[in-house]
Design a protein that fits this description.
Number of strands: 11
Radius of gyration: 26 Å
Order of helices and strands: HEEEEHHHEEEHEHEHHHHHHHHHEEH
Largest sheet: 5 strands, mixed
Strand order of the largest sheet: 7-6-5-8-9
Number of helices: 16
Number of domains: 2
Strand content: 15-25%
Distance between the termini: 79 Å
Structural class: alpha+beta
Shape: elongated
Helix content: 40-55%
């Protein structure tokens, strides 16, 4: 019996979700990186061959025409490099990963989840890479695999040290993402922060491992971001059960809090009988979907009166975050859809938790972080600008909004 971790997709014949798109994009980048490493190894192996004037005899010579490999999740475009000999001795570049005759892979859909969720951190990468193009691909050296993992590690380290003070960050979303994988006996958790800048562009700011409920873990993340130039955001959005909020008050005391309504709704429903949950869910929607804060507070009070006697724990769960649940009313209505929940993070990584199944074994800390990083950046490239991004400049300037509408100042009225 194989000891490998195996991650199976459910309903693999009808996959059409965000993870599939990320994997398709990621596979193209993966193949490109692996082939470039193979090329570098060929050039290094022939470095002793020189022309009479002392230059390298074997050099790059452009690319072959691009072609597609048909995979289980759609076509993946590949472009293989060419080399040229200057000393008259023939030499050709052949990729072990993508042989010239390979046009179809029946096993890619099984390989990619394994590759991203396990292979990048283990010595079993060779098997995972071979699955990209089926059983006909062979000959991948251990050094190629090791160098490919180093490339990803270097990319993550470079990304994790980049400066952040070239942008003004307006809103941030924070969440602790459990991957469903384990390191020894502990669940691996990625502490993730996404920010939106003044142009409405959303970017990952942090992907670090830590303890979701730990103030110290989040303090370390926020201090690192601050040291790299992250300004105090206007608003932070996230689940109330994290140590993030105490750390935020220490590092960025002027940043306001907005509790995530998706997390809050789930927490409240978990304290109620299943038969009652659809009705209660609608009552909660009546609060955060209200047009004005006054209407929301009226629906809030009605909820408390209706359920407090029989379900005090559910009501207490709602009451402890009253003010921070309604903070979004002080920001442009165009932004409400985005700042009422931590959806930018949840939608990116939620698929990993719900569409994969762990058999046994573990993933290393670095393996998890690199996997989250690669999937995250694939998703980030497809994100749209924040709706109503032209209002972000006003939020930065401190323009007042009431019930999502800009409040006219005395100067505006006088003009």
């Amino acid at each position: 019996m194989s000891k490998h971790n195996i991650f199976e997709f459910k309903d693999r014949d009808t996959i059409s979700d965000a993870l599939t798109e990320m994997l398709r994009t990621g596979s193209q980048q993966l193949i490109h990186q692996a082939v470039q490493i193979e090329l570098e190894e060929l050039l290094a192996a022939n470095a002793h061959r020189l022309t009479p004037d002392g230059n390298a005899a074997i050099v790059r010579n452009g690319y072959q025409p691009q072609r597609e490999i048909l995979t289980g999740i759609g076509p993946v475009t590949v472009k293989l490099p060419k080399v040229r000999s200057k000393d008259g001795e023939a030499v050709c570049f052949h990729s072990a990963l993508v042989p010239p005759y390979v046009r179809k892979s029946r096993s890619l859909e099984a390989a990619l989840p394994w590759l991203y969720l396990k292979g990048i951190s283990t010595g079993e990468m060779g098997e995972a890479l071979k699955l990209l193009v089926g059983p006909d691909a062979h000959g991948l050296s251990a050094s190629t695999i090791a160098r490919l993992k180093q490339v990803w590690a270097q990319e993550y380290q470079h990304w994790n040290g980049r400066r952040l003070d070239q942008d003004k960050w307006v809103y941030i979303w924070a969440d602790g993402i459990y991957s469903g994988l384990r390191a020894e006996q502990t669940k691996l958790c990625a502490l993730v922060i996404v920010g939106v800048n003044e142009r409405g562009e959303k970017h990952f700011l942090a992907i670090e491992d830590g303890v979701r409920e730990s103030t110290q873990s989040w303090r370390e993340v926020l201090l690192d971001l601050k040291s790299r130039g992250l300004n105090a955001p206007q608003l932070a959005v996230g689940d109330g059960a994290m140590g993030f909020w105490s750390a935020l008050d220490e590092i960025y005391p002027d940043t306001r809090h907005q509790r995530c309504w998706v997390h809050k709704t789930a927490n409240i429903l978990n304290k109620l009988p299943k038969s009652l949950q659809p009705k209660v869910k609608q009552s909660l929607h009546d609060i955060w979907q209200a047009e004005t804060r006054k209407d929301a507070e009226r629906a809030y009070d009605l909820f408390v009166q209706t359920y407090e006697a029989k379900y005090p724990k559910a009501v207490e769960c709602l009451q402890k975050d009253r003010d921070t649940l309604l903070a979004f009313y002080d920001y442009p209505a165009q932004h409400w859809q985005s700042i009422r929940s931590s959806n930018p993070i949840e939608s990116t990584f939620g698929t990993i938790r719900h569409r994969t199944r762990r058999s046994k074994g573990c993933l290393t800390r670095d393996g998890m972080l690199h996997m989250m990083f690669k999937l995250g950046l694939c998703a980030e490239g497809k994100w749209r600008k924040l709706r109503g991004f032209n209002y972000l400049a006003k939020v930065i300037r401190g323009v007042e909004f009431k019930d999502g509408i800009e409040v006219e100042s005395d100067n505006q009225v006088a003009a």
